[in-house]
Each structure stands twice: as C-alpha cells, then as structure tokens.
Amino acid sequence: MIIGEFNAVNAKMSAMASKFLKDEDYINMARLNSVSQIIEYLKNTSLSFIFDGDEDSFEAEKKLQVYRINTIKKLSKYFKGVYREFALELLNEFTIMDIKKILRTLKIGDGARTLESRLITLNYRDYDIKNNSSIADFIGKIKNKEFVKILKPYADEKDDIVLFYMEMNLDKFFYTKLFNLVKNFDRQNKKPALELLGIRIDLLNIIWIYRGLKYYDLSPEELINFTVLGGHYLSFDDLKDLSYSSLDKFVEKIKSGPYKFLFDGTYTDIYMDRRNNRYIYYLAKSDFLKNSDFSKFMAFILLLNYEIKDLTSVMESRRFNMSLDRSLNYLVRSYKGSEQIWL
C-alpha cells in the first residue's frame, strides 16, 4: 500500500459521515405521525435531495437504497484494481435483495401488486411476476448465469424449506466472493479488512446454524455445506463442531465465546438480527474513526447501510402507529445509554 493512497477518499467519506443523521433526529422522527411528515423532516437535512415530498413508504425506501447504490459507485471511482473490484462487488447485494423479495412473493403467492415499487435494481417488467407465477419461471428469466446456477437446483422444490436454502446459498455466494477478493489485498489492507469481514461471516454462520437446528431440523452435513469460510474467530473445525451439536449445546458453546451477546437476555429469536446488526454497527463506527486503510471504506458502507435501515425502520413504525419507545427499540443504534447493550 502506498502511504496516503486513500487520503482523498477518506476525506470524502469523513465529510459524508459528518452529515449522517444524529440520534436526536431519529427521536424527532419517531414522534411524528406519518411517513409524509418524516419525509418533510428529512427535506431539512443532508438527505433533502433524495425526496420530492410525495413518496409513500415503499417509494421512500427505494430512493434511499438507490442513494446507497450511487454512493458506492461514486466512491468506487477513487479505487483501483482489486479494491475497486471489491467496491463494485458490493452492488450484488442489491440484486440479491431483489431476488429474495421475488422468491418470497412467489413462495407465499401474494404481494406481486406491490413488488414493482419494492424492487431496487431488477426491472419488474423483465419478469412479469404474478401471484400465481412459479419459481421455476422466474429463475428461467434471470440473466445472471451465476444466480441461475445457484437457484436452479431448487426450481421445482415444493417444500417450505426451499426458500431458506436459496437465501442461504445467495448469501454464501456474496460473502465468498468478497472474502476471495480481500485475500488479494496487500498486507496492510488485508488484515483489518479480513477482521471486519470475518466477524460479519462469523455472525452470519452462527445465525444460519441456529435457525437450521431450531426451525428446519437440518442435518449436520447440510449445515456445514451452507456455511461461509473466512470467519474471524470461527474456523471450519469450529463450524463443524457447532453443526454436529444439539441446539442446547450449540447455544452453550456460543455463550462461552465472543458472540455470547446473541443469546444474552430474553427474546433471543426476536432480537437476534438486531443484536447482530447493533454489534456490527458499533464495530464499524469504531473502525471508521480509527482506521485509514481500505477497511475505513468497508466500515463507511456498513454505517451508510445502517443509516438507511434505521430510516426505513422509523418509517415502518409510523405506518403501524408504534409508541415512541417501541419505535426506537427497533433501531440498530442504541438509545439505552450504552453501546454494550444489545437488546
């Protein structure tokens, strides 16, 4: 790595991060009565250029995700070689998000009417999705051959577990590609990047194995097959050991390690995703402030993701008329006075 190689992009990201919404902004928005009032509030912030004021919640969420895509594309131009390749690979996440939305719609046979407004990168008209469309028909229309290869083996499966299989394989594909790219970073950039990505992979594997054991009664061999290599603390042997454990033993083993917060407290299943996201959020926040290597970019993209996730969450809370406390409780960021509180 050339000293100062990322100075320009680091300065750009620091300027952008300084304009992130503050905690009080989320409290203020959670006190409002409607999505339209939230959008009006946002028009007086650094995000004002995104909205025209007439959006419903689906349109607002889509515009926020498009903003995230455009930010990644803009920042990717500061990088060269494998670093630019990594940045652009992040865009696959949005396609995967859209594929998952379509698969869920087809599996439950409902929701096609709103699908067009919920898709981010895929063109709804290319797939002609209806509530009675089949998963096989959809897969046959996907243009990306890598995604077709992942999904085609499950095209005619009728069991409810098939959705779990497809979603896990899509995520495995995404994180494996990121991991393989990071392995080609130079030494100074590789170590911090592998740590940040590796912790995300660890948490993903833990959540997958837990759900596979508890809800789908998957065999150890199936669980191992779906795990992603490249974790920071959990080696392949660790994952194998966890996959061959009973559910109680699995939880016991996780609670004795660095990710015990996933199972601390109550309502584990309800809050697991939020505990995962909150841990990564504060880790990314720390990495962004202290690092000047490529992991600063990785951390920034995570912070941007959680900014949009929290905005979407507070909009959803207004749609369902949640109380202030309950609205804030669903956010990734903590409002309980400590970054170490995972509930």
TrEMBL record:
Key words of the record: Ion transport, Transport
UniProt xrefs under InterPro entries: ATPase_csu/dsu_sf, ATPase_V0-cplx_csu/dsu, V-ATPase_V0D/AC39_subunit, V-type_ATPase_csu/dsu, V-type_ATPase_csu/dsu_dom_3
Protein name: V/A-type H+-transporting ATPase subunit C
Family designation: Belongs to the V-ATPase V0D/AC39 subunit family.
PANTHER family: V-TYPE ATP SYNTHASE SUBUNIT C (PTHR38682:SF1)
Gene3D superfamilies referenced in this protein's UniProt entry, alphabetically: ATP synthase (C/AC39) subunit, domain 3, V-type ATP synthase subunit C domain
